[in-house]
């Protein structure tokens, strides 16, 4: 690993390639040496989907600004780019890359691309390391939720049974009163 960037280390090229391939994101050595806007967009799309569950279709659906413009067809690409940038910028801030800009998408520079990819790859490795623990607690939480639901159903049944008994008691109360007065 090379020098640090922010609170994560800048990874060696081979480490970046390995992590991205594990994430099933297409990349070759040359992509890191000479990144193109098209390649980085493919990677960023994959990051949004893998790490946040946001697809391009969802980004397109979220574009509400087109409803407020006179010529939506001429602005749709720009608005989509800004929406994509906003979502990617949010993701990168969450993984520790605080200085992402539109330039990183439109005119990617090798050193910055490597730093950005290092941030995302470090986060992905951290997440993968913690996933078994998270899954364990998720399973436990699911089991507790099922147990709570079963107990709630049992409580509802007991309350229904109590209500039935109270109703029977109210119906039988006049007879009990008459028998008590006879004795």
TrEMBL record:
Keywords: Cell cycle, Cell division, Centromere, Chromosome, Coiled coil, Kinetochore, Mitosis, Nucleus. GO terms for molecular function: protein-containing complex binding. Pfam families: Nuf2 (PF03800). One of its GO terms (cellular component) is Ndc80 complex. GO terms for biological process: attachment of mitotic spindle microtubules to kinetochore; cell division; kinetochore organization; meiotic chromosome segregation; mitotic spindle organization. InterPro entries: Kinetochore_Nuf2_N (IPR005549), Nuf2_N_sf (IPR038275). Residues 134-168 form a coiled coil. Residues 8-138 form the Kinetochore protein Nuf2 N-terminal domain. It is found in: Chromosome, Centromere, Kinetochore; Nucleus. Belongs to the NUF2 family. This is Kinetochore-associated Ndc80 complex subunit nuf2. The gene is NUF2_2.
